[in-house]
């Protein structure tokens, strides 16, 4: 094959390669939408490896300036009832969306432990002053190590632990009133 012919084929391949990638991406997106319509695809369906296992023991400092105590590994097992562990940050817009649900749960008597993820203590304190404080205790995960141990995908992310400290549920993303009523309330009653 001549050099000119090889060069022409290479140029053609360079033209068609992006079109092929776009077609493959479009096909994947179409399959995802079809799965969402028929219920076979759940965009939140990335399971946690922690479900059914003891929550990772944490030893983190309290968030300075919030007036809230920190908590240690013993707080994760709460005799007499479940506990929510919520990863959040002041810079997280979905955390603002979720926050009213956390406040409402706290008012109903649900114990919520907060893990402030890669945030500045002063910013966390301002957030709680502005939106309310749903947390019984709050620790700082400044370097993200606790997030790694929990397999965090991002913030907000919430875990339900039973009275023995076993992870029973995980929600990645902001909890909405529908999430609370359709999923979390059922589990809170079951593990009460």
Describe this structure in words.
With 192 residues, this protein is an alpha/beta fold. It has two domains: 1-41; 73-190, Glutaredoxin (3-Layer(aba) Sandwich), CATH 3.40.30.10. 43% of the residues lie in helices and 15% in strands. The protein contains five helices and five strands, in the order αβαβαβαββα. It has helices spanning 3-38, 93-107, 121-131, 145-150, 177-190, and strands at 83-88, 111-117, 137-141, 157-161, 167-172. It has a five-stranded mixed β-sheet. Helix 2 links the parallel strand 1 and strand 2. It is elongated, with a radius of gyration of 22 Å.
Brief summary:
By secondary structure, the chain is an alpha/beta fold. It has helices at residues 3-38, 93-107, 121-131, 145-150, 177-190; strands at residues 83-88, 111-117, 137-141, 157-161, 167-172. It has two domains: 1-41; 73-190, Glutaredoxin, CATH 3.40.30.10.
What's the assembly state of these chains?
single chain
CATH homologous superfamily title of the largest domain:
Glutaredoxin
Largest sheet: 5 strands, mixed
CATH class of the largest domain: Alpha Beta
Order of helices and strands: HEHEHEHEEH
Classification by helices and strands: alpha/beta
What's the CATH architecture of the largest domain?
3-Layer(aba) Sandwich
Give the proportion of residues in helices.
40-55%
Total strand count, please? 5
Content of β-strand: 15-25%
- How many distinct helices? 5
| Unreliably modeled segments | none
In one word, what is the shape?
A: elongated
pLDDT average, as an integer? 86
Query: What count of structural domains?
Result: 2
- Strand arrangement across the biggest beta sheet: 3-2-1-4-5
């Amino acid at each position: 094959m001549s050099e000119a012919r090889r060069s022409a084929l290479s140029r053609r391949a360079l033209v068609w390669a992006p079109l092929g990638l776009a077609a493959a991406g479009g096909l994947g997106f179409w399959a995802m939408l079809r799965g969402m319509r028929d219920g076979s695809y759940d965009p939140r369906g990335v399971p946690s490896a922690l479900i059914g296992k003891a929550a990772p023991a944490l030893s983190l400092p309290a968030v300075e300036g919030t007036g809230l105590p920190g908590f240690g590994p013993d707080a994760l097992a709460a005799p007499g009832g479940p506990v929510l562990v919520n990863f959040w940050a002041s810079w997280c817009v979905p955390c603002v969306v979720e926050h009213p649900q956390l406040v409402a749960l706290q008012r109903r008597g649900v114990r919520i432990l907060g893990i402030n993820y890669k945030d500045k203590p002063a910013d966390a304190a301002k957030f709680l002053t502005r939106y309310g404080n749903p947390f019984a205790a709050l620790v700082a995960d400044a370097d993200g190590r606790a997030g790694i141990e929990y397999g965090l995908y991002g913030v907000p992310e919430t875990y339900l632990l039973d009275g023995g400290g076993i992870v029973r549920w995980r929600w990645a993303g902001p909890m909405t009133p529908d999430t609370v009523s359709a999923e979390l309330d059922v589990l809170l009653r079951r593990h009460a």
